[in-house]
Amino acid sequence: MMKAWFKSGSPWIWMTAGAVSLNLILVVGLLLLIAVRGLGHFWPADIIEYRYQDRDGPESAIIGEAVATSLLPAAQARAAGHELLDNGEYLVQHLVKTGNRDILGSDFRWIQQQYIHGQSTPDDLIMVERREWGNFYGRLLAVKEDGAVIAQGEQAWQVAQQKLATVLNQHDEIDSLQDHEVGAINYELERLRLKQRGLELKNAWNEAAKQEFAAQKQTYEKQYQVIQQQIGKLSKESKRYSLVVAEAGNKEITLPLNRVVKLTRPNTMSVLDKCIEYVGNFATFVSDEPREANTEGGIFPAIFGTVLMVMLMAVVVTPFGVIAAVYLREYAKQGFITRVIRIAVNNLAGVPSIVYGVFGLGFFVYIIGGNIDRLFFPEAAPAPVFGTPGLLWASLTLALMTLPVVIVATEEGLSRIPKSIREGSLALGATKAETLWRTVLPMASPAIMTGLILAVARAAGEVAPLMLVGVVKLAPTLPLDGNFPYLHLDRKFMHLGFHIYDVGFQSPNVEAARPLVYATSLLLVMVIIGLNMFAISIRNNLREKYRALEN
Amino acid sequence: MTEAHPTQAKATLFQTATSDRYQRWRLVKDKMVARGVVAGGLSIILAVVLIFFYLLYVVFPILLPSHAEAVGRYDVPEQALGNTVFLSMEEQNEVAVRFTDTGKAIFFSVTTGQPIRVDALPIPENAQITSYAHGGVDKGVIAFGLSDGRAVVVKHDYKLSYPNGKRAITPAIQYPLGAEPLVVDKQGQALTKLAVKLGDKNSTLLAKTADNRMVLSSLSKKESLFDDEGSWEATDSVIEMAAEDVDFILLDKELRNLYLASRSGDLTVVDILDKSKPEIKHKLNVLNQGVQISSMEFLNGDISLLIGDTSGVMAQWSMVRDQQNHFSIEKLRAFKVSDAPIITINPEQRRKGMLAADANGEIGIYSSTAERELIKEKIAGGKPVSVTLSPRANAMLLQTEDGKINHWTIENEHPEVSWSSLWNKVWYESYPKPDYIWQSSAASNDFEPKMSLTPLVFGTLKASFYAMLMGVPLALFGAIYTGYFMAPSVRQYVKPGVEIMGALPTVILGFLAGLWLAPFVEANLTGIFALLMIVPLSVMVFAYFWQFLPEQARHKIPDGWDAVVLIPVVIFGAWLSFQLSPSIEALCFNGDLRTWMREEFGIGYDQRNTLVVGLAMGFAVIPMIFSIAEDAIFSVPKHLTTGSLALGATPWQTMTKVVLLTASPGIFSAIMIGFGRAVGETMIVLMATGNTAVMDLSIFQGLRTLSANIAVEMPESEVNSTHYRVLFLAALVLFMFTFVVNTLAEVIRQNLRQKYSSL
């Protein structure tokens, strides 16, 4: 029976089916893993107060969010030097995010279930998101103004929220003054310096120019003074308030309110409140600047950098890819040359991305960029302008890398256009170019679009080459701003993929940053899968359309 | 608008006379477009060629031979002031100095030999110079031993200034230990041999006296509140040994090891860490019978000795520590310079290279790491008297016995790279034996770069091997089922579903592998291995019992939906493996697999190891292999399979005997392309391994691949340095490898396509 069954080959068919199932489980499992971990990051979790007593310590309180639970088999636990009180099969441990890094030294702590004497979620526990040192968990005692208590007890919460809103407003104002006004003045001053240097190089630096420049400089400096005063006033104002809080051990701590980003009491929130909070958290995440070496705050500059880089890349890659595909399908005689080109296209697709990075760094940055600097920016020397990794070179490198994607997709689109359409156009007297421009390309445009989307999806997720040609962990300014010439192709930029690598692997506090990395990953995955699905659906629609045309 | 259009068109058609120009313009435009499109198409080939040639262009200089060129020959400046004992040049190759046996320092122009300045060293009137020593060629320190047991230590130094925007170099003589001669031998005997090393805090002078004692004078700086310079305090000691035949003395810069050698080849190493109690550590003979030592110098870094002998061989000896922590002196390598005695050896100041000159005026420049001869030249003018390499090792001055100085320029940019240093085992300084090592940079100046690509290539192949081991079976089995057995309604979702896996950014896979999978695998190692057994087994068991299910139940599931049915089975199998793993561990491995492996087999466990990389990168290559192989299988002409089935073959027989055979070139090219992808993958290996360049076959150890190495080191490497070019070489290796793989795969695929269309 068994033998016959094996002989029929059906077990092997089942095995191949099993491989398909496993593949599907892997894909779905991976996406679920990212989704669950990434989405969990924004949920305002309850703050739990544990009463905890170690084997040798006194009973103490621990306040924090429960993050994870692990089961360690008894044998392994004993090997690691833990004792099991109840001789159970597993040692149960909880990872608690206790925050208060400035007091406790780290954000997280493992505690063992067997030592927990009790846990509760009192309403008065607060979570304070701070600009430095991560979160604070504890209780709010009072609010102070200029060192004098203005609210205590129940009142304190209301007052704290009100004052926080004002202080946050002031902070935003300071930020915007710093970034826009002061940034613009610095930028203009730098341009003035370069202009002066340029004139000096041309031996045109004379008295008239000197006076003119000095006058301009003075205006800028005056403006600067004014802004500086405004900033000083605001920051003095924002420093007036502070919170008095108590940590788990009931030690009183004073938190200046201008160091606080957010103040919440998750334990008092209803599910609806939490949902609103959740959406708000997500919005902040997407729109805010990063803080504390990227491990907290938002990822806006990374999103912005990725999008801008990908858009520039699309501008470059589309014409080249389309022309190459048109050549292969419409102009070339199928023969040796087309075979060689196809091999070249496949090689472009198969060359490791890091090799593109190396090529981009050596060829684009050092050779082309270096020569541009020598020819057009002699006044900036020895500081490089284009002779250093930056946005332009990153997009060009990725354009080269994604070229095959556009070519292959466009070619497929062109091959699906029925011959009769071209022949019809030619028979009516149109030239080949006109046929191409008026009928073939418009019909192939969804295919071109597909290729472009796939290329964008590929480029958005690529990191290795970018590490060499222009991505940095923290860019001081966005590559697009209000200063002439608005789009700064020479600037370095931030990128979502690199952000994941950097925060996940290079940051000093990986454990604390991990939820943020999951959230960033989720965003990136959603964008890329979304783009891919979109491309696939366009392609399928296209196929249907041409099938109808052919009949 | 659309209705108005036809009339307009009609008008243009009939205005033939005026549209003559327009027609010509149309034709011109047509031609221009055709030209542009052709150029655009061909530029794709250009792009590939450009990448290749650009990489080659950067790599090429390390393949170029070095050469030296004579640029000047002039009389020794101020010849009357004595014979040269030491020559040296400054950084810019403009000013050189010659120290004479009469205690003069003569600075002169490198290009013309014109004296710039002459300094007389403060030699006491009643004493003669009896010996001299330099304190390292890069330090500029010279010491003269005197007939009254004292010594003078001087330093030549150069100041750069830019008066009127032009560079001016001002030489000067300094006295780092004070201008007053130092008493080295308290008994006042003449110092016949001398060695000196200067440090910030401690300095040591060592001398052999005329009555054959070895005296050691160690000076330590006393910080003084009132005196900025501080003063030096001397501790004297005597090394108890027979010193009659000590002819060469070298002292390393750590002021720890003292090397004494006799002409007959007896080398003694003395540990002088405790300056008051020197201890003889090693004694050995370094030469063959009938040969004598003719010169001895340190290689840059003071770790290796370069010993030149009368048979024209220069050997590198170094202190080596073996696994038991025993030190011994070993000969790392030897260079045959010529047949004449080697008179002088001059180490490069910043690299592990050296210049050796023999009695006939033949010079050779060598690199110790690359173990090769770079330059061999014959200098006119007879026996060399003194020779020096410039600090950047791009020029040389050599004085010959006929009283001339030869000025040569040297072009020797990348001496440390050779075929053997890139791919073979190299015996590096302070290593117990020759080995493959990648360690490209360190903070110190005298670091020996270890640039062996072998461990990186090994790591690359190891990582891709395990990735393929995981990816190929899953992808191919999946492709077989999806391409041939699966119902079309399921296939239209499954195929894009798996392909979307390929769109996942590798940085995310790498991040998950490093931060989620690695700890997970570490905690559930047994479960992972149990998975390999239990999941296929549970599928088999399910399949076996499936046929006993009542017909009706079975027919509820349409043909080609097996994969969907199996999803819960696979999940159950996986769950079961992890549930069983503690019991398996308790039963077979004393409770903990990792401890058991370490204790039983000595297998260590790295958290970010090859297993993790294999799993993550296997996942990354699945979609690519799956997609191409599935295409190949799916496009096998239907009449072949139906024919086979009609002749009575079972579906599985048809699969293996007809479909797989026909599609095999496509499957092969799928595997090749997957392999190419695994070899070049960067982010996953970068994040999922510890990036240690070890050559270890164990699956539980980390590795470093070519691509990750480039990603890690390229941003820090100095443009056009040897390191930079070697990284480009690594990129070129990757490029060529994937080029071969992809070209092969594409040619096979093109042929397959033609075959199908003819079928």
Task: Give an account of the 3D structure.
The complex is a heterodimer of chains A (551) and B (759). Chain A has 551 residues and is of the alpha+beta class. Chain A has 3 domains: 48-121; 140-245; 308-550, MetI-like fold, CATH 1.10.3720.10. Helix content of chain A is 62%, strand content 14%. Chain A has 16 helices and 13 strands. In chain A, strands 6, 7, 8, 9, 10 and 11 form a 6-stranded antiparallel β-sheet that branches. Chain A has a 5-stranded antiparallel β-sheet with strand order 4-3-2-1-5. In chain A, β12 (290-291) and β13 (296-297) form a beta hairpin. In chain A, α5 (153-201) runs antiparallel to α6, α9 (336-350) packs across α11 and α15 runs antiparallel to α16. Chain A is flat. The two termini of chain A are 52 Å apart. Chain B is of the alpha+beta class and 759 residues long. Helices cover 40% and strands 27% of the residues of chain B. Chain B contains 16 helices and 31 strands. In chain B, strands 6, 7, 8, 9 and 10 form a 5-stranded antiparallel β-sheet that branches. In chain B, β6 (129-134) and β7 (141-146) form a beta hairpin. The longest helix of chain B has 40 residues, at 20-59. Chain B is elongated and about 120 Å long. Chains A and B meet through α2, α3, α8, α9 and α10 of A and α2, α4, α5, α6 and α7 of B.
User: How far apart are the first and last residues' alpha carbons of chain A, in Å?
Assistant: 52 Å
Structural class based on helices, strands and sheet pairing of chain B = alpha+beta
Count of individual helical segments of chain B: 16
What is the radius of gyration of chain B computed over CA atoms, rounded to a whole number of angstroms?
38 Å
| Low-confidence sequence ranges of chain A | none
- CATH topology call of the largest domain in chain A: MetI-like fold
Structural class designation of chain A: alpha+beta
Q: First CA to last CA of chain B: what distance?
A: 52 Å
Low-pLDDT stretches of chain B: 1-11
Q: Would you report the number of β strands of chain B?
A: 31
Q: In the residues of chain A, how many domains can be counted?
A: 3
What's the CATH first level of the largest domain in chain A? Answer: Mainly Alpha
Strand content of chain A: 5-15%
Q: How would you describe the shape of chain B? A: elongated
